[in-house]
Amino acid sequence: MKNKVLVAGASGTIGREVVFELLKMGQDVIVLTRNKEQRSFPAQVEIVEGDLSIPETIVGVFTDVSAAHLIAFSGETYTPLSSGYKVVEMMVAENVERVTVLWNGEGKTGTMEKAVMDSRLEWTILQPQEYMANAAGWAKNIRERRVIEEPCVDRPTAAIHENDLGAVIAQILVYGGHASKILTLTGPQVLSPRKQALAISKAIEANITIRELSEAEARKRWATWGLEQETMDYLYAWYKNPPAEGYTVNQGVASILGRSPKTFHDWVKDNIQLFK
After folding, report:
1. In the chain, what are the helix, strand and coil shares in percent, each to the nearest 5?
2. Is 199 in contact with 264 (CB distance < 8 Å)?
3. Which CATH number is 4-128's, of 2.60.40.1610, 3.40.50.720, 3.40.190.10, 3.30.1370.100?
4. What DSSP string describes 176-201?
């Protein structure tokens, strides 16, 4: 009987949350990872090695899978996958019923999204606008220098807690109910990076200075991360002039989970040891 749920990108911030939410729901979980020797998951999780960007490495992984969570990008540079149609072909051949896809956040529809939308799969595409977890990137500077360096520090954002997104994905994978939908998801409030910094400052009872990076400084940082020029262009344009979807709070999380989404204060409380 096909009753397992596969999670790709499980070593990432969102994928890991999906795995733990599925486990709490009593599901049998398969994790797809590019290097299982470097990943740690609970003992009851089945780990298989493979890469969505190289379909020949994932032959057979969908055999016992009824639902799967996929990502639309590859690696830390968020390069859109070119292998979407081949991956979806494999899923259809194995009679996978349901799939969720996490977009790459660059405002483009890649092959993975196009492939699932063109298929007979019961699909849902998730388009969270920004993650509260991005603030974790400030942790080292806060611990060592009590400084945050960020472009466009007063831009509005309705960032979402990664646990809320993981819980939404798990809920859809197990129970469905949101087929053929593209869901734009937000957190419950609009906060700028400056106000997020103030929340962290209050939580750790320390003064934190926030320094706004120029465009040149932001691009220099992103270049060290390996981001492509096109990605940097999109990212800075998004920061400089956020789309309304990025700062307009919606009720997507609450309607799916039946509870209020977590606040940035909750996120700081959950992750306070990062900053001390």
Report:
1. 45, 20, 35
2. yes
3. 3.40.50.720
4. ---TTEEEEE--SS-B-HHHHHHHHH
Cα–Cα distances (Å) from 53 to 6, 19, 58, 81, in that order, read: 16, 21, 9, 6
Q: What is the pTM of this model?
A: 0.93
Based on DSSP, count helices (H) and strands (E) in the chain, helices before strands: 11, 11
**Please, what are the averages of pLDDT over each run of 10 residues along the chain (276 residues)?**
88 93 96 79 91 93 96 73 92 97 77 94 95 96 96 97 98 96 96 97 96 97 90 92 94 96 97 96
The residue extents of the domains of the chain are 4-128
Strands 4-8 and 28-33: parallel
Query: 162-194 in b/e burial notation, b at 16+ Cβ within 10 A?
Result: bbbbbbbbbbbbbeeebeeeebbbbbbeebbbe
Residues 160, 130 contacting (CB under 8 angstroms) = yes
- Token couple for 208: 């934190």
